[in-house]
Amino acid sequence: MCPVKEKCGRTFGVLLSGGTIFAGDWLITMTKVAGHMLELVWRREQLETLIKVAQAWVQDHAEETAHTPTIKFMGALERLRDAKAAERGI
Predict the structure, then answer these.
(1) Among candidate residues 68, 50, 66, the one with its CA nearest the CA of residue 58
(2) Pairwise CA distance, residues 14 & 1, whole Å
(3) Domain housing 68
(4) Is-contact 11 5, C-beta < 8 A?
(5) How many CA atoms within 13 Å lie on the side-chain side of 70?
(6) What is the pTM of this model?
(7) Which of 17, 34, 75, 88 matches a 20 to 30 Å C-alpha distance to 53?
């Protein structure tokens, strides 16, 4: 067993490895990577949820004034892709 930790060091899970009762170097490395990746995924999901709530809120309030805006969130990768496509004339 080896703890999975956030960047700040707080443990939020455990990675289990079969058979051995000690945490080898490989297992420790994997828990560090897994902890970091899980935290990034969780943060991204929280951001996407916040964006969806904000979009719904704006659209709900815009309907009251007879204006229905189209809202699209673009992350850095989408902006980069669109910029490259514009450069190529696509």
Answers:
(1) 68
(2) 6
(3) 2-88
(4) yes
(5) 1
(6) 0.53
(7) 34
